[in-house]
Write a structure and sequence with these properties.
Layout (H helix, E strand, L loop, with lengths): L2 E2 L8 H9 L5 E2 L3 E7 L14 E7 L4 E6 L3 E6 L4 E5 L14 E6 L6 E7 L4 E6 L4 E5 L18 E6 L13 E3 L3 E5 L5 E6 L13 E7 L6 E4 L5 E6 L4 E5 L14 E7 L4 E7 L2 E6 L4 E5 L14 E7 L4 E7 L2 E6 L4 E5 L18 E6 L18 E7 L1
Antiparallel strand pairs: 1-2, 3-4, 3-29, 5-6, 6-7, 7-8, 9-10, 10-11, 11-12, 13-14, 14-15, 15-16, 17-18, 18-19, 19-20, 21-22, 22-23, 23-24, 25-26, 26-27, 27-28
C-alpha cells in the first residue's frame, strides 16, 4: 500500500484540518474493503440477509470510499463516484425511487460524481454532496428537514435525491455534513456552518431558537468551521483552531458544560486541539491531536469508557494515548487507534462489540475492548450515525 498526494514541508494547523475535512490527511492507492457487524434489521449490513453479526464480516466489493449506517439502513459511495444503498426503505431513504427494502447494495441512480453522504436512522433521512458542490437530500421530510422552503403542510417524503437550492458552494468532505434527529448540518466552502429542520432543545445552534426551519440558516457568523460531529439531540463542530463547540440538549451533561443545561447557541467545550467528535443520544466522545480520547454525558451502558456507569458533565479521559478516530452510536462507541487496531465499548445487544460471542450477546462493556487482532483497520473515510451497528474499513 502506497501513500500518495501528501504535500511536502511543515503544515499549518488550518491545512491539517482542511485535509481532515476532505476525508483524511493522506490518500491511499489501494483498494478499500468495507466490513460490518451488529444490528442487521431489514438487511442494513448489505449481506443479503437479516441476520445480526457479532464479528466483522466483509460487505461485497473492494472499492468503497466511505459510508454511513444506521443498522437498519446504509448509504455508501465508491471510489468511482457512484452511490449505493441498502436496508430499510420505508420513507424512501435509500434514494432509489421506491419504498422497497434491499439487503444487498443497490446503486442510487447512475451518477458518478458523489463525494460524501450521511443518513440518520432515527428519522430515516439521507443527504449527500456532489463533487460540484451541490447538496442533495431525500427520505423523511418531517420538520422541513429536506430544506425545500415549503409551507406548514410540508413537501412530503422523497424517494429520490432532490437538490437544496441552487448553490454550488457546499464543502465536499466527509466531515462537512451531518444529520441529527430531524436536524441537518452542513459546512460551506467559505467555512460557514448551516443548519435546518427541527430545533429540539436548541440543537440547530441558533438563538433565539425557532421551532423549525425548512431552509438552511447560518449558525453565527464565523468562517472557521472545519468539521461537524455525529449527534442525536445536540450539535457539535470543530473549528480550524482546534476548539470544539456544542449546542442543544444538555441532559446528563451532554454538552460538557459541567451542568445539565440546554443551550441554543454554541458553547465551547474546555480545551483545544480537538480532532474528531462524535455524539450519541445524550453524550459525546472526542479525540485530540495528541492521541487522547475524552468522553462525557450519559453512561448507562458504560459507553464513556470509565469502567463504570456514572454520568459525567465534563470531559473525562478514556485510558490510552494513541486514539485516532471515534464513532459514537446508540449507547456505544467504535474507536480506531494509530496502530490500525479497532476497539469498542458500551452496549452489545446486537453483537456490535464484535467479540464473536454466541447469542444471546454478552452484556455491555464499560472499558475499551479490542475487536480481533488485525492491525490494518483505518482506510480513507467512514461515517456512521446513531445506531446499533458498525462499519469499518481496510485498505489493501
Amino acid at each position: 500500500m502506497a501513500i500518495t498526494d501528501k504535500e511536502e514541508g511543515v503544515w499549518e494547523l488550518d491545512q491539517v484540518y482542511n485535509k481532515i475535512n476532505q476525508g483524511g490527511i493522506w490518500s491511499y492507492d489501494g483498494d478499500q474493503q468495507m466490513w460490518g457487524w451488529g444490528r442487521n434489521d431489514n438487511g442494513g449490513l448489505g449481506l443479503n440477509n437479516v441476520v445480526d453479526y457479532s464479528s466483522p464480516t466483509q460487505i461485497p466489493g473492494t472499492n468503497w470510499e466511505g459510508a454511513s449506517t444506521g443498522g437498519n439502513e446504509t448509504l455508501a459511495i465508491k471510489t468511482d463516484g457512484t452511490m449505493w444503498s441498502w436496508g430499510d426503505n420505508t420513507y424512501g431513504q435509500l434514494g432509489n425511487n421506491s419504498q422497497t427494502d434491499y439487503s444487498s447494495p443497490t446503486q442510487v441512480g447512475t451518477d458518478t460524481n458523489w463525494s460524501a453522504c450521511t443518513l440518520n436512522m432515527q428519522d430515516h433521512s439521507s443527504m449527500a454532496v456532489r463533487t460540484d458542490g451541490t447538496l442533495w437530500v431525500w427520505g423523511n421530510n418531517d420538520y422541513g428537514k429536506l430544506a425545500q422552503n415549503q409551507g406548514p403542510v410540508g413537501l412530503g417524503n422523497q424517494s429520490s435525491p432532490i437538490q437544496i437550492g441552487s448553490g454550488t458552494d457546499w464543502a465536499t468532505g466527509w466531515n462537512s455534513l451531518n444529520l441529527g434527529n430531524y436536524t441537518a448540518y452542513a459546512i460551506k466552502t467559505d467555512g460557514t456552518l448551516w443548519s435546518w429542520g427541527y430545533n429540539y432543545a436548541g440543537s440547530m445552534g441558533i438563538s433565539p431558537a425557532p421551532t423549525s426551519r425548512s431552509s438552511p440558516v447560518q449558525i453565527g457568523t464565523e468562517t472557521t468551521w472545519a468539521s461537524t460531529g455525529l449527534n442525536y439531540s445536540h450539535f457539535a463542530a470543530i473549528k480550524t483552531d482546534g476548539t470544539l463547540w456544542v449546542a442543544g440538549g444538555g441532559s446528563y451533561g451532554a454538552l460538557a458544560q459541567n451542568n445539565t443545561t440546554s443551550y441554543s447557541s454554541p458553547r465551547q467545550v474546555p480545551g483545544t486541539t480537538w480532532r474528531c467528535v462524535a455524539g450519541h443520544d445524550d453524550g459525546m466522545l472526542a479525540t485530540k491531536t495528541d492521541g487522547t480520547l475524552w468522553a462525557w454525558g450519559r453512561n448507562a451502558n458504560g459507553q464513556l469508557g470509565q469502567n463504570n456507569t456514572t454520568n459525567y458533565s465534563s470531559p473525562r479521559q478514556v485510558p490510552g494515548s494513541t486514539w485516532d478516530r471515534v464513532t459514537s452510536v446508540w449507547d456505544g462507541a467504535l474507536m480506531l487507534k494509530t496502530d490500525g487496531t479497532i476497539w469498542a465499548m458500551g452496549q452489545n445487544h446486537y453483537g456490535q462489540l464484535g467479540q464473536n460471542q454466541s447469542n444471546p450477546a454478552r452484556g455491555p462493556v464499560s472499558s475499551p475492548v479490542q475487536i480481533g487482532t488485525d492491525t490494518d483497520w483505518g482506510g480513507r473515510t467512514s461515517q456512521q450515525n446513531v445506531a446499533q451497528a458498525y462499519l469499518a474499513f481496510k485498505t489493501k
